[in-house]
């Protein structure tokens, strides 16, 4: 195989964005387009000189594709992904990989053939800022992490946005609000950089700023196995909003804000200085560094290219789909903590959260 015959299911705004990148990548042959809106799928297939399929089953039966890109609404990711994996296809799924942990586990369990490539569209992992920070952490330059804060409130949305689709901001349509729609990338990066916490206590406000049934503001407190703590804050009702990631560790502090990476590096271990210094008011000496990064990386196009290279050349994936469970589990844990008014220990009981979500769907305003 020297090119990947790729099918795309979901020709909405995100699917069409991916189609633009696929058309520019000579490692792919666009072999099929499918969408629940058959008129849209037929028109899109014609635009890209590709085959049109009315259903995923038809696309699979035709035998023309090696791989499938899933860009459909969240709840359908599991069913479509399982069908594609069981049919022997390589799969690239949009975020979140599923809406809740139990469905994530079903999807991941369907990936039994390790020769099949199964990836997730976590394009923020291609951003040089987060890659540099990941490298610093993995090399031990920061030492043990003590605290992480992420304020990501520049997701401002209007009522018009939420009214643009009946599925938007509903338990039935999206399975959540800012955590399931806007924040999966940040939750993925949070666990990619810092690992998974052991406890979550969150306060999720449902429809605080908008006439919606799901959360549009979140404040969560996290605890980690090594004693580190974290705070994660997000909102779609705040303007101008903030995007600031701050990680404090034994060898200083890194801040990512306004497309800059700042490292306040201590000359010695903070833990050792705290323990051994004879100066009552002493503080470790530090030096300041701006870590150079340029641009935002290859984003969606790079994830697509990496997916092709994994199939054609055996290259490691930037974002294996199995790792997508962690961001979903974090989102679920935050919602479950708030809805039950309790601290939630991880691993989350996926079945208990699924039952809770089904009750919310049944009581939903928009069906």
Largest sheet: 9 strands, mixed
Q: Structural class, please?
A: alpha/beta
Radius of gyration: 22 Å
Count of individual beta strands: 15
Enumerate the spans where pLDDT stays under 50 for 5 or more consecutive residues: none
- Report the average pLDDT across residues: 97
Structure annotation, total helices: 12
Characterization of this structure:
This protein has 367 residues and is α/β, with parallel strands linked by helices. The chain is 34% helix and 23% strand. It contains 12 helices and 15 strands. It has helices at residues 13-24, 38-47, 56-62, 77-86, 101-109, 128-138, 159-162, 184-194, 270-276, 299-313, 324-340, 350-362, and strands at residues 4-9, 28-34, 52-53, 67-70, 90-93, 118-120, 145-152, 199-206, 215-223, 229-235, 243-249, 252-257, 260-266, 286-291, 344-345. The strands form 2 sheets. The protein has a 9-stranded mixed beta sheet. Strand 12 and strand 13 form a beta hairpin. Helix 4 (77-86) runs parallel beside helix 5 (101-109) and helix 6 runs parallel beside helix 8. The longest helix is centred in the C-terminal third of the chain and has 17 residues, at 324-340. It starts with a strand and ends in a 5-residue tail after the last helix.
């Amino acid at each position: 195989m020297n090119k990947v015959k790729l099918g795309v299911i979901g020709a909405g705004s995100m699917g069409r964005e991916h189609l633009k990148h696929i058309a520019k990548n000579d490692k792919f042959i666009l072999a099929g387009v499918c969408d629940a809106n058959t008129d849209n799928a037929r028109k899109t297939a014609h635009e890209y000189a590709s085959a049109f399929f009315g259903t995923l089953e038809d696309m699979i039966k035709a035998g023309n594709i090696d791989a499938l890109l899933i860009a459909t609404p969240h709840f359908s990711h599991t069913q479509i992904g399982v069908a594609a994996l069981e049919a022997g296809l390589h799969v690239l799924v949009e975020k979140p990989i599923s809406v809740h942990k139990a469905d994530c586990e079903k999807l991941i369990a369907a990936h039994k053939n390790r020769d099949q490539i199964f990836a997730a569209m976590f394009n923020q992992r291609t951003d040089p800022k987060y890659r540099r920070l990941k490298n610093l952490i993995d090399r031990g330059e920061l030492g043990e992490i003590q605290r992480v804060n992420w304020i990501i409130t520049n997701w401002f949305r209007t009522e018009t946005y939420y009214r643009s689709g009946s599925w938007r901001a509903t338990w039935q349509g999206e399975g959540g609000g800012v955590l399931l729609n806007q924040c999966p990338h940040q939750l993925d990066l949070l666990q990619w950089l810092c690992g998974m916490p052991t406890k979550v206590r969150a306060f999720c406000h449902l429809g605080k700023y908008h006439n919606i049934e799901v959360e549009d503001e979140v404040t969560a407190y996290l605890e980690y196995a090594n004693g580190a703590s974290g705070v994660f804050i997000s909102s779609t009702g705040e303007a101008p909003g903030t995007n600031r990631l701050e990680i404090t560790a034994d060898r200083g502090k890194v801040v990512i804000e306004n497309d800059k990476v700042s490292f306040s590096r201590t000359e010695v271990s903070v833990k050792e200085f705290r323990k051994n210094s004879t100066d009552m008011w002493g503080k470790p000496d530090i030096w300041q560094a701006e870590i150079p990064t340029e641009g935002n990386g290859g984003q969606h196009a790079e994830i697509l290219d990496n997916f092709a290279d994994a199939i054609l050349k055996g290259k490691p994936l930037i974002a294996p789909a199995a790792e997508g469970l962690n961001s979903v589990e974090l989102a679920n844990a935050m919602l479950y903590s708030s809805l039950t008014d309790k601290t939630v220990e991880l691993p989350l009981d996926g079945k208990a959260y699924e039952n809770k979500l089904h009750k919310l769907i049944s009581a939903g305003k928009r069906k």
